[in-house]
Amino acid sequence: MGLSISELHIRRSAWIREAPDVVWREFETMERLSNWFGTGHELEVYQPHLHGRIELSVDLDGARIGFGGNIIVFDSAVELSFTNNWFSDEAWSLDTFITFRLTPTFDGTLVELFHHGFERLGAEAADELEDYEAGWDNHHLISLREIVEGVNNPQESIH
Questions:
Q1: pLDDT value at 11 more than 60
Q2: What are phi and psi of 106, to 5 degrees?
Q3: Closest by alpha carbon to 127, among 98, 57, 135, 97?
């Protein structure tokens, strides 16, 4: 069973014209994940298995800051979930979570990205949720769709 998505969450999604096992190939290696999830931030570490790690970095206010955590769900073609926190003085008191879910839908896959667990931050929860709601866009999942559909359906690639 996957990680429960908490009440305070951000959700982005994209529908991909391929089966979940085909989409999941892009989660299987650091190189493949980096091609679409390493945009806007850089994928530094990816150990694609339960209890592995995922670490990313981003430039904020002229400084390179790392974030990420431990992989807590790695269910092939279904879900990848990991703990998420800053590796700096900006770290929250408790981790939030990032979850990718793949659900067979029609003749393809609904891929959802959730950033959740903000309620764990107590009094900071509302402000953090609002900040991240404004910050997350859908470009990662659009890139994933372009890669998957472009590789498997060159005539239908979205560019």
A1: yes
A2: 55, -125
A3: 135
Q: Are 116 and 10 in contact (CB under 8 A)?
A: yes
**Residue 47 included in any domain:** yes
Mean pLDDT rounded to a whole number for the chain: 93
Q: Output the pTM of the full model.
A: 0.92
For residue 52, the SS3 value is coil
Would you state the structure tokens that stand for residue 74, as one six-digit string?
A: 């790695």
Question: Does residue 4 lie in a domain region?
Answer: no
Amino acid at site 65: I
Q: pLDDT tens digit string along 75-93?
A: 999 999 999 999 999 899 9
Give a yes or no: residue 157 inside a domain: no
CA 158, CA 147: separation in Å to the nearest integer? 9
**Structural domain count, the chain:** 1
DSSP code per residue over 95-142: -EEEEEEEEEETTEEEEEEEEE-GGGGGGGHHHHHHHHHHH--SHHHH
Write out the residue range of the structural domain in which residue 142 sits: 11-152
